[in-house]
Amino acid sequence: MANRLKIFLPFGILVVLILIIPVLVMLIASFQTLDGGLTLDNYHQVITNRYYHLAILNSLKISGITAGVSIVIAIVGAHALTKLQTSTKQALITLFNMSASFAGVPLAFSLIILFGNAGVWRAITTALGWPNGLNLYSLTGATFAYTFFEIPLGIMFLFPVFEELNPQWREASAVLGASRGFFLRQVILPVILPNLVEVFILLFANAMGTYETAFALTGNNIVTIPTLIGALINGELTANVPLACTFATIFAGLMTLIVWVGNRVTRSKWEVA
Amino acid sequence: MLSSTERFYARFVTLLIFIYLVMPILATIVYSFATSWVKTILPEGLTLKWYQQLVTNPDFSAALVRSLGLSLGTTLIAMACFLPVVFYVNVYAPSLKAKLHFITILPFTIPGIILVTGLIQVYANLPIPKSLILVLAIALLSLPLTYQVLNNAFIAHDFRAMFEQALVLGERPIPAFLKVILPNIKSGIFVAMLLTFTSAFGEYVLTNLLLGGNFETLKIYMYRLMQSNGQASSVLTTIYFLFLAFISLILILIMRHANTPSKERSKHS
Amino acid sequence: MSSAFLALKDLSITLSGATIIQHMSFSVRANTLTTLLGPSGSGKTTVLRAIAGLNTRVDGEILLDGQAIQQLPANQRQLGMIFQSYALFPNLSVFDNVAYGLRVQHQSAEAIEQAVTGMLATVNLSDKRDAYPHNLSGGQQQRVAIARSLVLKPKLLLLDEPLSALDAQTRVDLRDQIRDYQQKLGITMLFVTHDQAEAMAISDDIIVMNAGHVQQQGAPMAIYTQPANVFMAQFIGHHNLLTGDQLLALGCHHTRTQAVRAAHHYIVRPELFFREEPQNAGPVVAIAGHLISATMLGDRIRYRFATAVDQLTLTVERLNHTTPLALNQPLTLYLREHDVQEVGPHA
């Protein structure tokens, strides 16, 4: 027992100091005023303030669309990846991992060079007389930017799922006389659907929590929940940490709920307990 | 067993996605060598002067040193906290593994922006150095990644039997760990350290909000440059990309080196 | 010999650039259980997959019941196939797995209910109809896979090492059950295995393959007693494989049919050495030496017998009810010349 304590001590201290205490304090602070009194006013503001509604709506819009588009591309990509040679697969996974870690300031900057007002894309479309469709600093622009890390992330999550599908299922199905479509409907789709839902939720949650890319790309032009929290903390609006705590609490509660419900829904009766 | 059309399709699709993802990075690299590239299809000329300018700037070296120091500290703390736990759970208490699984979804339910809110509320006015809190917080945020990589390192062998064998042969626990377990998981530990280091090196949210720009790491510096000097920023972004590419290369080489038989075993267990 | 139900004519198979099978021909009689036997890498699974239509490139002809099927896609060949890994669909219950092929054919719910229930009774899994594959033992899973194929009444059932993933006892039980289904339902089965004992135990016919070629085809008895060449002699169990030189040195100058030739190979089966000199058995060779080891095999004991002739060691087997022989004592064993079998010249 003494040994066990020693082994868990550093880990335990870290989790208590950096995770448990801050999250609890955050929860309490979400019910406090700036000078420490108890109040429900923060929650009332979140519910009534138009600007805050916009932040929530923007976050949901960007995250929903990014996660949806990215998972479709990731399905195609991860499926294609399983058909490559083993060494190529491993190298590509590492490269996808790299491009996911490129998210944030460097990604925002790169996209501005390519698609910004003075960018190459603008030069090309102007030269060809095409409409300059993409406004990078808009909601669409942010959604577009998010795909650059959501797609590789989705591929990395989905690759093991596709890799574990037994190729002999398809062969067994063919010998039993079934067409490819019948097989996809009856076997593959039911088998991977829970994973697809799970990965969609993770991609959605990841986009919801993205601060760096949104902030670096649009500053405070496009307000999302994370950039709003950031602004409330460092005083770009007016510093109001308790209100930031309220948003953070709502966010953490909502995400925990979504992930938990997702887990419940996707647990199927044929899966090993 | 694949037909050539299938293989062609797979390569084509992967290549397409890869090009899409790499395109902005490539543009940045070209931009960093361009004398000027504004509203034209191709850059006007090529030069190395932006590199010279950035590398000789004292702000750059200061930011680099801060980032390296921060990453190193984070990596050491992360290993000190997680390695004993992963070892213990794998060797002595596999049943605890399921309970620790919540760790892997932590970054999705409590991402950096949420964690930092709580940290500021708690520590903003306490007389504890913020940089210490920062290092600890980044270590915690790297936990899911570190935990999974370390955990994978333990799957390949029956470490419990090996460890107990060493004890039966008269070895004390810590030398037994160092002599029997460590050599077998060292590449896993190395990969975990690299990934922790990389994620700390690229950290932005916590550093920016917790220390409010008073502690200028490479990423913060990059953001400042981005607002003021596009060429310098592109150079810094390119350097950052090269750093990531270098780490990826090391990871690929390690994976090539890792023998496939042990992977086969892990599949069955 | 009745007519060929399945015939492979001049079959060549190329997989990712490498030719695995070259110009292979063999045939399988109707209503038999025929085994494709061979060491791993001999190409037997490749041939089976070609018959099922699961290979991408096949040259030559595959005739099933007189009809050329090599151009048909797998889902139109009306065959059954059993995989080593069972390949059950994890999201479907036992009932739905077995019903899969019937649903493909859009059969009515009552017809499906009736056929599947009957089939599950045949394979003794009626009580598992609502279970999912992961709840079943390996043997049960393989029986579901067999039921899933048999319920479609295939013309031919292909079995690709169906027993290798099972434990020893289940392997023997299921092996006998498969033979039983084959005889009861009167269907033709082609069974791939690398296990000779398994092949010997259930087959009407055995086709031995090595390196993409058929080495020998015949009934189990013929395969065991009359190996056609040196590979066969080495592959089938513990036969003593001797050169003519060695036989001559032991004092054996004739086989049943002809004189021993120095450069040829011969086999002597381990159970055909005698402790006492056999009477009225034609010419007999006496071999002096001593036993150096004994291995208990249950019904038999296997000895290593060191002869007086330059370091030549023979394998000798004796039934367990005879008196055990003492090791390291001078001993003379007797061999009838007509038990010596020629297998061919040096490879």
UniProtKB/TrEMBL annotation, chain A:
The membrane-spanning stretches of this chain are 7-31, 51-81, 93-116, 136-162, 182-205, 241-261
A GO cellular component annotation in the UniProt record: plasma membrane
Keywords for this protein: Cell membrane, Membrane, Transmembrane, Transmembrane helix, Transport
Q: Which InterPro entries match?
A: MetI-like, MetI-like_sf
The answer, when asked if Transport is one of the entry's keywords, is yes
Q: Which CDD domains match?
A: TM_PBP2
**GO terms for biological process, alphabetical:** transmembrane transport
Location within or outside the cell: Cell membrane
Topological relation to the membrane, as annotated:
Multi-pass membrane protein
User: For the ABC transmembrane type-1 domain, which residue ranges apply?
Assistant: 56-262
Transmembrane listed as a keyword: yes
Record-stated family: Belongs to the binding-protein-dependent transport system permease family. CysTW subfamily.
**Record's protein name:** ABC superfamily ATP binding cassette transporter, permease protein
Origin organism is: Levilactobacillus spicheri DSM 15429
For this protein's source organism, the top of the classification is: Bacteria, Bacillati, Bacillota, Bacilli, Lactobacillales
TrEMBL record, chain B:
Its protein name is ABC transporter permease
UniProt keyword annotations, A-Z: Cell inner membrane, Cell membrane, Membrane, Transmembrane, Transmembrane helix, Transport
What the entry lists under SUPFAM superfamilies is as follows:
MetI-like
Q: Has keyword Transport? A: yes
What membrane topology does this protein have? Multi-pass membrane protein
User: Do the record's keywords include Transmembrane helix?
Assistant: yes
Q: Which residues form the ABC transmembrane type-1 domain?
A: 64-255
A Pfam family found in this protein is BPD_transp_1
Where does this protein reside within or beyond the cell?
A: Cell inner membrane; Cell membrane
Q: What is its main location?
A: membrane
Q: Matching InterPro entries, A to Z? A: MetI-like (IPR000515), MetI-like_sf (IPR035906)
From TrEMBL, chain C:
EC code: 7.6.2.9
Classification of source organism: Bacteria, Bacillati, Bacillota, Bacilli, Lactobacillales
Tell me where on the tree of life, at the top rank, the source sits.
Bacteria
Give one Pfam hit by family name: ABC_tran
Matching entries from InterPro entries are given as: AAA+_ATPase, ABC_SmlMolc_Importer, ABC_transporter-like_ATP-bd, ABC_transporter-like_CS, P-loop_NTPase
Q: Which UniProt keywords apply?
A: ATP-binding, Cell inner membrane, Cell membrane, Membrane, Nucleotide-binding, Translocase, Transport
Organism whose genome encodes this protein: Levilactobacillus spicheri DSM 15429
Q: What is this protein called?
A: ABC-type quaternary amine transporter
Tell me if Electron transport is a UniProt keyword of this record. Answer: no
Keyword Ribosomal protein among UniProt keywords:
no
One example GO MF annotation: ABC-type quaternary ammonium compound transporting activity
The ABC transporter domain covers which part of the protein?
6-236
